[in-house]
Amino acid sequence: METTMVLRSTLGLCVVSSSSNLRQYRTSAAKHRLTSVKSVTSTIPPSRKRKNKDEDGDTVTKVVENPYSKVEAARPDLRKSLLDFLEEARGFVGDGGGPPRWFSPLECGAQAPGSPLLLFLPGIDGTGLGLIRHHKKLGEFFDIWCLHIPVSDRTPAKDLVKLIEKTVKSEYHRFPNRPIYLVGESIGACLALDVAARNPNIDLSLILVNPATHVNNFISQPLSGMLNVLPDGIPTLLEDIFSVKQGDPLTGMLEALSNEFFSQRMGGLGGGMLRDILAVSTNLPTISRMLPKDTLLWKLEMLKYAIASMNSHIYSVRAETLILMSGRDQWLLNEEDIDRYSRTLPKCIVRKLDDSGQFPLLEEGIDLATIIKCTCFYRRGKSHDHITDYIMPTTYELKQQVDDHRFLLDGTSPVMLSTLEDGTIVRSLEGLPSEGPVLYVGYHMILGFELAPMVLQLMKERNIHLRGLTHPLVFKNLPDSVVDTKMFDKYKIMGGVPVSSFNIYKLLREKAHVLLYPGGVREALHRKGEAYKLFWPERSEFVRVASKFGAKIVPFGVVGEDDICEIVLDSNDQRNIPILKDLVEKATKDAGNIREGDESELGNQDCCFPGLVPKIPGRFYYYFGKPIDLAGKEKELKDKEKAQEVYMQVKSEVEQCIAYLKVKRETDPYRHLLPRTLYQASHGWSSEVPTFDL
User: Fold this and answer.
1) Closest C-alpha among 90, 141, 126, 66 to residue 368
2) Whole-angstrom distance, CA of residue 76 vs CA of residue 400
3) Which residues are registered as beta bridge partners of 207?
4) How far apart are the C-alpha atoms of 624 and 499, rounded to whole Å?
5) What is the pTM of this model?
6) How far apart are CA 606 and CA 584, in angstroms?
C-alpha cells in the first residue's frame, strides 16, 4: 500500500513515501509547518444558509450543513482496519533503523485554525501507527504527530522521555496558548506521565490508553524464558511453514474474498472481528519482524524501567488526565493501580472499556474522537469551553443516537405541531424560526423522554441544532457515582451545555437555538400526580438576557408521558425505605444544588430516578406556540416588572400548549399502538401516521 506521510525529526519535517520507507528524508531547521495538505472532496448534504457579521461588520453568509441528511446511509467501517495497520507497518519494519522520529499522516487533512497539538506515543510495537483507525477523524480537530521507534533502535526510556520533552518544550515555546495532548498506549503512557511530571508548568493534557502499571510476572517470566530459547529466524520460518508471504496472489485473493463475504453476510462488529483474525493470520511475518526476539526482550526490560520511573514521579503530575482502561487486559494493567492513579492525579477521568483487550485503539468498536467528546476532554484554550470547543456529531454518531432511541421513536410516533406567523397551527415545524438566536422554553417530561424525538426531528426537518441547557451533574465525572455516567454521553454528543445565566448569554450571542427548561430537574423527576404541572421559579431568569440579543422565545408543550409509563416509586417513597434513603441522599449530594440559597421547593429537590412501570406505548404530542419576538425591546425589558410580564406570558402559553394537546389527543384515532401498527402495516412502515384534525 502506497502511503504518504509527513515525517518530522527534532529539527523539522519532510514528505516521504512508503516506497522509500523511512530511509530517505530531508529536514529543514527554518520551516516547521506543513504548507500544503492533501485535498479532501466530499458531497455537501442538504443545508441552510445563515447570515452573520464578520469582524468588520460586513454580512457573511455561512452554509450550515445538515448532518442528519445521510444518517440512514452512515456506516461505521469507513475507518482503516487492523489489516491496514499491518500492511502499513510492513513499510516501517524495513525502515533501515535510525533514531526515533515524528511523522504526521497526511490523511489527517487540514485542521481548524487553533487546533491543539496531539503527540502519539506508541506502545510496545513502536511503529507509531496505533492511531491509524482514528487518524482521519482526530485529524479534523487535532494537529497529529506520531512517534516512530525503529525496530533496531535501543534508545533507553529516559532518553525517549528527553526526546519527547524537547518536542513539547519547542512547540510550547512556539505556541504558548495552544494545549498539547500526549496520547500514550501502554509503555507510551508511562513516558507521557514522566514528561508531564518533569514539566508541570506546560499546558498538557494526557490520554493514557491501558497505561502499564505493573508487569504480570506470571505471564512475563515464562514469556522471557520462551523468547530466550527461540531461534532468531522466526519471520522466515513462519513464511516457510505456513507458506504465507505478503504480496502473494493467494493471500490477496483470500483478503478480497473475506472482505466481500464479511461485508455482505456478516456485517457489524462480528464481521470486523473475523476480518481482524484473518488479517493477523495472513500477516504473521510482519508481526514477527515488528517484534523480533531481541527487540521484544529489550522492550520488556524498558517497560519495567518505565513503570518504575513513572510510579516514582506520578505525584508531580499536574496535567489533566483521561485514562482509558480495558476490561480484559490482565498483563500490564491493574485496576487497583488505576484507582490509585485516579485519586493521586489532580484532574483525572477514568473510562472503562469493558469489552476491550490489550490494544483497544485497533478494535472495531472503539472511537477515540467520540470518547473525547463524551468526556468533554477537548479544548483549544486553557480550559474546556462547552460552547466554542463543541464539536458537531458526525453522521455515524447521529445514526447511533437514532438507533439507540429507535424503540421510543417508533413506539410513540411523535406528532409535532407549530404555529405560523398568522397564528395557523400546522403539522410540521414550519413555524419555527430558521435564524437564531432562538430560545425554546417548555415543559420537561419525566426523565426527559421528550428530548430525543424533538432534538432529532428539528435537525432532520429544519436543520436546527438545539443546544440544550443541562444540569451540571451530566458533566461531572464522579468515580463513586450511584449511576453510570456513560448514560449522559448522548447529551454531550448532541451539544448539551451546563445551565447557567452566563452560558445562556454566550449561546444567544452565538445566534444559537437554545433549549431551556425552567422547571429543570424538579419537572424531570417529578412525583406522583404531578404530570404536566410546571415548577418554574417565581421570577424571570431568561427574559432580559434574551432581549439583549433580540432573541425569539418559542414556548412549547409536550404530552404523552402518562401513555408510556406510570410512577410507582417517587422520591418521597424512596426516602421512606432505609436502603434507598441513603442512595437518594448520596445522589442528591453528588448532583449539587444549582439553586443554592433558594428556600422554595426548587432549591431542595431530591435527585433520584423514580420507579416506573411501563405501559403499552401511546403517543407523544408536541406543540410549539407562536414565537415571541424580543427584537428592539432591550431597553423596555430592563424594567424588572416588564420582564416579569413577558416571563408570565411565556409560562401561560406553555400551559396553554399542554392543555390544547391534552384535549386534542382524545380525538386522535391513532393515539394507541395497535391502530398505528395496523395503519403502517397497510401503508408502509415508514409512512407518517395521521392524527387529530387541526
Assistant:
1) 141
2) 10
3) 183, 322
4) 22
5) 0.83
6) 7
Percent of the chain with pLDDT over 90: 51
In angstroms, the CA 506 to CA 503 distance is 5
For 591-595, the CB contacts below 8 A with 24+ separation are: 591/471, 591/472, 591/473, 591/521, 592/472, 592/473, 592/476, 594/471, 594/472, 594/499, 594/500, 594/520, 595/537
Least confident of 83-97, 235-249, 344-358, 662-676: 235-249
Residues 490, 408 contacting (CB under 8 angstroms) = no
Tell me the CA end-to-end span of the chain in Å, nearest whole number: 61
pLDDT tops 90 at residue 324: yes
* Partner residues linked to 416 by β-bridges: 622
369 φ/ψ angles, rounded to the nearest 5 degrees: -60, -40
Distance CA 49, CA 463 (A): 10
Is pLDDT at 38 greater than 80 in this prediction? no
Joined grid coordinates for residue 594: 444549582
Contacts of 562 (CB under 8 A, 6+ apart): 531, 618
3-state secondary structure of 372: helix
- Specify which residues 425 forms β-bridges with: 419
Highest mean pLDDT among 105-114, 362-371, 475-484: 362-371
By C-alpha distance, which of 63, 175, 60 is closest to 113? 175
Indicate the DSSP class of residue 264. I
What angle do the packed helices 82-93 and 268-281 form, to 10 degrees? Answer: 30
Strand 552-559 versus strand 628-629 pairing type:
antiparallel
Distance CA 500, CA 600 (A): 19
User: Residue 1: pLDDT above 50?
Assistant: no
Gap between the Cα atoms of 564 and 363, Å rounded: 38
